[in-house]
Amino acid sequence: VLVLVFALLPKRLRTFAVLAPIAACIAASAPSVLHVGDALKDGRSGLGPLHTATAAIFLAAAVAGVIVATGAAIESRRELAPHSARAVRRGLIVLAAATAIAVLAGGWVAAGDPVARVSHAWETFTSGKGYEANGSGNRLLSGLGSNRYDFYRVALDEFSRHPLVGIGADNFATAYLAHAHSSDTPRYPHSIEVRTLAQTGVVGTLIAIAGLAAALVAALAALRARTPDAPLRRGVAAAALAGFAYWLVHGSFDWFWEFAGLGAPAFALLGLACALAPRGASRTPAAGSWRSAPARRYVLAAGGALALFAAAASLTLPWLSQLEVEQAARVWPASPASAYGALSDAADLDPLADEPYVVAGDISVRLGDLPRADHEFALALRRNPEGAYATLERGAIASARGDRAHALEYLTRAVRLAPHEELAREALAIARRGGRVDVAAINRAILRASAPLR
């Protein structure tokens, strides 16, 4: 992204002079920021490190702002003589070259043999070796040893099976449980590009590419502006475009798309870059043209309003459904009837979601009402036939009720849906021996083994 910034912005030495103190202040505050995650991972309270990191961030930002503002004030108030300007320029060139050499040399020393380093990185990336060791350190410094390669493999295999429209948004978790080579339980493929391709297929990918290309064309127009305010316009557009580019690059290897607090500013920056494109002179439609026809304008307005309403409903209804699920999770110990009512409303608001029925089934299990629990999990499986958890619960409930045939049927399917799930295999082994599965014990074990969703 830094390469992109220097490629897009004019007056690159000025850009370097501005970014140097900012980079130095970020480097100074980074250890405090990283220490927060280390403290939480080690089971210690993160409150103290969080306060320290917050103070370090604000102090670093203030120092960087003062340095840049001071430089800008001096530059605006003092007109340098030509020979002095040349001396400053030469000094900045030397400093920039020294910085580049220092960064390259430091990287070389840290990495060692670059060929061996790249080969080792690729091996750990494709094999997942070293993932457990990396997990003991800070996540942001843990290297390439992870199961992302396996995430991408499953996602691209799903795309090859459903190339036209994909498997549907946020349906990756079920596919990964069935085809994983690791014991991870990711909800997302950890890549914007892979996510788009696997979950929306060729159709969704082409639409996304078309929308992004249109935005980039407008942003590039802002970068080539020749208006009186061109320097400011081009500088702001380049900075905004670089901010979006960072989100895109980092999101290509992580699950940034799922965080609205990251995606919203990124797309706002892209919109800002587009808005800075110079506008052509407006033209009044000729009399009698289709643009001036009132009837057609009304049709277009109605169509736009309908599309906007559909888009709003597709976001609002699932959100309202989730609020009802959260309400049920809070009130069920004191008022099970209210919880069941809220979950029924949640299921009506989002006719595609199985979560309301799954939560209702969990509540019924905790209350000891196994017939209702089995009914709720059956409703969940109608909406999501490949739900491994609901399938396991139905098998455990059938076993507890003495229905060995159905227990074996559901538990066998649960193992097939999640081959790495140890609890499902243990429950199936108990059922095959003729024993009865303890549903409450299964749920306690699931709760203890729950991993963070990502």
Description:
With 454 residues, the chain is mainly α. The protein has 19 helices and no strands.
List keywords for this structure.
globular; single chain; mainly alpha; 454 residues
Brief overview, please?
With 454 residues, this protein is mainly alpha-helical.
Main sheet? Answer: none
Fraction of helical residues: over 70%
Mean pLDDT: 84
Number of strands: 0
Overall outline: globular
Distance between the termini: 25 Å
Please compute the radius of gyration using only Cα atoms: 29 Å
Please identify the structural class as seen in this structure. Answer: mainly alpha
Strand content: under 5%
H and E order: HHHHHHHHHHHHHHHHHHH
Separate helix tally = 19
Low-confidence stretches: 132-136
Task: Compile the SSE list and pairings.
Blueprint lengths: L1 H7 L3 H30 L5 H31 L4 H30 L2 H14 L3 H4 L13 H14 L10 H8 L12 H32 L6 H22 L8 H16 L18 H38 L4 H14 L5 H12 L3 H14 L4 H13 L3 H14 L4 H11 L6 H11 L5
Helix pairs in contact: 1-10, 2-3, 7-8, 7-9, 9-10, 9-11, 10-11, 12-13, 12-14, 13-14, 14-15, 15-16, 16-17, 16-18, 17-18
